[in-house]
Amino acid sequence: MVKEGWNLQGNARFEGFCIDLLARVAARAGFHYRLRLVPDNMYGAWDPDTGQWNGIVKELMDQ
User: Fold this and answer.
1) What total number of domains does the chain contain?
2) What is the pLDDT of residue 50?
3) What's the distance, CA 55 to chain centroid?
4) 40, 41, 23: which is closest to 32 by C-alpha?
5) Residue 27: CB atoms within 10 Å
6) With contact defined as beta carbons under 8 Å apart, do 44 and 57 qualify?
7) How far apart are CA 21 and CA 28, in angstroms?
8) pLDDT in tens, 28-44
């Protein structure tokens, strides 16, 4: 969940169970991460007209 109405940057902009879980796993496993919103603000849906995915699904597939 994105915190609205706050002047926060980076990972501090997000809150919730999954964010807390990610922070604890990262601390125990010893890795760093950076959260960000995808430019189109979509989770990911198949577009039959373009034959492509959008949102975070597209970003993951493009990696």
Assistant:
1) 2
2) 93
3) 10
4) 23
5) 9
6) yes
7) 11
8) 999 999 998 899 999 99
Residues 27 and 45 in one domain: no
* CA 57 – CA 16 distance, rounded (Å): 21
DSSP structural state of residue 34:
-
Name every residue whose Cβ is closer than 8 Å to that of residue 27 and which is 6 or more positions away in sequence: none
Q: Please, what are the averages of pLDDT over each run of 10 residues along the chain (63 residues)?
A: 72 90 97 92 93 94 91
In terms of domains, do 22 and 3 share one?
yes
First to last CA, the chain: 24
